[in-house]
Amino acid sequence: MTGRGSRERILARIRAATAGLPPVPDAAGPPPAPRERTEAEIVRTAELFAARVRDYRATVHLVAPGGVPAAVAGALAGRGARRVVRPGGLPVEWPAGDGVEFLADEPPLTAAELDAADGVLTGCAAAVAETGTIVLDAGAGQGRRALTLLPDYHLCVVRAGQIVPGVPEVLGRLDPARPLTWISGPSATSDIELDRVEGVHGPRTLEVIVELPAV
Amino acid sequence: MSGTWLGMPAFPRNAEAALGNSRLRANLRKATHTIRARRAAGVDEMPGWAKLRARGAAVKDAALRDLDKHLLRAEEAVTTAGGRVHWAADAAEANTIVTELVKATGHREVVKVKSMATQEIGLNEALAAEGITAYETDLAELIVQLGDDLPSHILVPAIHRGRAEIREIFRDRMAAWGRPAPDGLGDDPRALAEAARLHLRERFLASKVAVSGANFLVAETGTLVVLESEGNGRMCLTLPETLISVVGIEKIVPTWQDLAVFLELLPRSSTGERMNPYTSMWTGAAEGQEFHLVLLDNGRTGVLADEIGRQALRCIRCSACLNVCPVYERAGGHAYGSVYPGPIGAILTPQLRGTATPLDASLPYASSLCGACYDVCPVAIDIPEVLVHLRARVPHPPAERAGLAAAGWLLDRPGRLRAAQRLAGRLRGLVPRRRLPGPGAAWTDTRDVPPVPAESFRDWWRRTGGEDR
């Protein structure tokens, strides 16, 4: 069933309804032009991002260049995570970890296996400072969407250079053809008396490591 | 509250009944005031909000201006990316399309992401009639479904329920739908959210077919966008093998970059957050899924044809207008008799459904025209303007028509007005003090009759030589 007759009928009704309307100029305008940023600007943007993510009651660590492996090991140990999903494409030097078993998604893990894992470790595609948002595009170091959904703990590594100031800038960095997941803090709901409660179906704990540039 | 809107009386009677329910009023007051404060903080923090709001309105106007071209472009993009596009002229056709698609999968259960469009068309009931069970997975929708209730708010359909009632519903009804509520469940929102997590977990892991709506559909890329908070949306959009999205044709935005405006406007207007916890975007068949897009008209092209009414199609369903409305706060969402309650519902429902029933004809009057809804609307829909426009369209009772015709005749000529004022002044002893007789009684139910002066202002002015001063 394709609703073929309805397609033509709906289009005809639209054309009749909008006939003679004046054209509307392009309102959104072009995306902000990318520009070179100084190291200091990058650090300031990263600090705003960290503050905004913390507002969602997520844990954020700012680390010096090269500090990611130790921070990952520390976060996993602090969480007590033993079986951690690790999508392909993450830097090899990130820890195999003492007593941490990494689960590769090859062959694909089942939903039950993902559900039973203690957590997931990923990178990201981009991030937004203003709103404290991480964007995943299912690319290298992130894996398919279910990987960051079913485990109850998500540890995400963001390089400071991936963080842009606002939403208009981040759209220019993303490929709409890829499945995208925007994450702003842990799963939450406001459905009971409109009070925010963290933790429903998605990961209830979000921990973020931000790698700062060398200054 | 039974699970149907059909045959509901007109708004004033519904509102009167709701006003007698003190628990409902307390729940609504608490919730709407909480969210109002949070929205105000979120909006105040954003520089250039007025400009952003104007751009939101302009993008939507541009999308509606060339809606046919944008829909065709989206259809091509979705099809190229491996999805299938279906067109539904009305609710019945949309329900048939979805039902057939679900049947073709061989499965009898679907999980659902909260969607206004599927509520509008009564999809769950249509699926049930064909032996297919639809499981709502949004927390508030779950509360409504388990309680055999009706939604009363666009964003938080169970806003009329307090935590104690929610606990009762979970305790009594969860077992009939799947995993029962934990023993000794309390009414702490955290515990209630945890109960919902456990109740739905296995359902998500086993689900094969999902039905969603969408907040936006990008014409140039064919990308669908769903904003949510809990992760139930991600579960439904990601895990099943088949995904069916029912999307109103007005959800379209022309370009990818246009999304920036709405991703900044919607969360702050809706929950007061800088950004909602999760937003999913996908184009066509993602990660090997089978994907169907059902484009829904169901009265929207009729709204588009109305010069003043068409601005209602800009609506991005944030619900900010409900949260600030003094009428909504007191009457609650059920009084509007539609999945679209509050100020936006009062202009959307009569346009989508017509004004043939007493309820639908009463909706343009479900407002004091205070304009708070217009002030907060992120896409600048002039709701009072549309309300007044629709009032002219609905049928008026004979007494009101006669009264307005008489007033028109009198006010048309100064001589007539003067004569009538003099006559009224002489007969003023005969005018009842409190209640008018006959059809005028309804007007004096809530007002005193204004006193008629012995002498009109104009006569007094002339008698005291006002013109010579």
TrEMBL record, chain A:
Segments crossing the lipid bilayer: none
InterPro entries in the cross-refs: FTHF_cligase-like_sf, LUD_dom, NagB/RpiA_transferase-like
Domain of life: Bacteria
Name of the protein in its database record: LUD domain-containing protein
Lineage: Bacteria, Bacillati, Actinomycetota, Actinomycetes, Streptosporangiales
LUD domain location: 113-210
Automatic annotation (TrEMBL), chain B:
GO molecular function: 4 iron, 4 sulfur cluster binding; metal ion binding
GO biological process: lactate metabolic process
LUD domain ranges (all copies): 73-287
Limits of the 4Fe-4S ferredoxin-type domain: 312-381
Every Lactate utilization protein B C-terminal domain range: 395-464
Keyword set, alphabetical order: 4Fe-4S, Electron transport, Iron, Iron-sulfur, Metal-binding, Repeat, Transport
The protein's name: Iron-sulfur cluster-binding protein
Organism field: Sphaerisporangium rufum
